[in-house]
Amino acid sequence: MKIDSGDYVLDYDERSDKVQIIGSLRLNGLEEYAPVLDVLRECLTSTTAMTVDLSTLEFLNSSGIAMLSKFIIEARSKDDLSLTLLGSSKVPWQGKSLKNLQRLYPALKLIID
Amino acid sequence: MTDFNEVIGHFSDLRNCLTQGEYLHLGFQPNSSPLKERWRNNGLSADFMADYVTTFFPKSAEDPNSETRQIEIKSAVSFIANELLENAMKYSDPSLKKAISISLILEETRIVIIESNAAKTVQARHYRDFVQKLEQSDPMQMYLEQLEAKALDDSSSGLGFLTMVNDYDAKLAWQFQSSEEQGIITVSTEVSLPI
């Protein structure tokens, strides 16, 4: 499954249970983020080991941080889940904000290359 | 109606004493087109401000840290300017037909970004109460509380400010000023980013 808005691309690979988001996410509020959150939820309900790759997500606004935290709060209530979040040290916001998300869910596997 | 003039935090209001140095000043008319169409301009303007700043933090082959520094400052300015513009677009009252302005001022030890918009007194007081709470809070504790709370509701202005403080080491200040027009307040938010 793929969403291509022009500003961002979301690619959900059902075979590897991986969701990759590329580009810039500057949507207005959780309502506009619903299509992104829906895909993350879909992956979450269909597997026990999922990966979210944000390493090429150059920009995320605070509504996007709110959307990700909402997803992570939902994920942590799922038993026997292994959730991996991939980030990049070349994208400055990730080292800072993704670590904060890990505080919400200490079992989250955060890999920042 | 009584005047409403208040400052929260260390508000330096550099816009009134700009005689030299580097600065940018952009203005927007919130009622000129629908919010959905204007939204795109937030990102464009924020990225423009961030790109502009990189000129003053050049990459140097002799200093391996210079590239990282440039990328970090660019990222911080882009995030902060974008959040301030998003808040202004969301919360300023288009019926007042007052411009939204954002200024970026480069100083020796900091970058200052100031956003101003007009609000009705009731909205301005509501916002004042909110930023007062923010100012008195432990920013990391409040950030985590907000992240948890965001699972339930959809007002993210606090999260943007708290990200600026926690992730970018920014200092925030606010100014509320009565205007000549009865019942209309100019609300200014100042974000100071150490460099």
Descriptive overview:
- The complex is a heterodimer of chains A (113) and B (195).
- With 113 residues, chain A is of the alpha/beta class.
- Chain A has one domain (2-112): STAS domain (Transcription Regulator spoIIAA, 2-Layer Sandwich).
- Helices cover 41% and strands 32% of the residues of chain A.
- Chain A has helices spanning 29-46, 62-76, 92-104; strands at 2-4, 8-13, 18-25, 49-53, 57-60, 82-87, 109-112.
- In chain A, strands 1, 2, 3, 4, 5, 6 and 7 form a seven-stranded mixed β-sheet that branches.
- In chain A, helix 1 runs parallel beside helix 2.
- The radius of gyration of chain A is 13 Å and the shape is globular.
- Chain B is of the alpha+beta class.
- Chain B has one domain (6-194): Heat Shock Protein 90 (2-Layer Sandwich), CATH 3.30.565.10.
- Chain B has five helices and six strands.
- Chain B has helices at residues 35-54, 65-91, 121-136, 139-149, 157-168, and strands spanning 6-8, 22-28, 100-106, 110-120, 171-178, 184-194.
- A six-stranded antiparallel β-sheet of chain B has the order 1-5-6-4-3-2, covered by helices on one side.
- In chain B, helix 1 (35-54) runs antiparallel to helix 2 (65-91).
- The mean pLDDT of chain B is 88.
- The A-B interface holds A 7, 24, 26, 28-31, 59, 61-63, 65-66, 69-70, 73-74, 90-93, 96-97, 100-101, 103-104 and B 35-36, 39, 42-43, 71-72, 75-76, 78-79, 82-83, 86, 90, 143-144, 147-148, 150-151, 154, 156-157, 159-160, 163, 166-168.
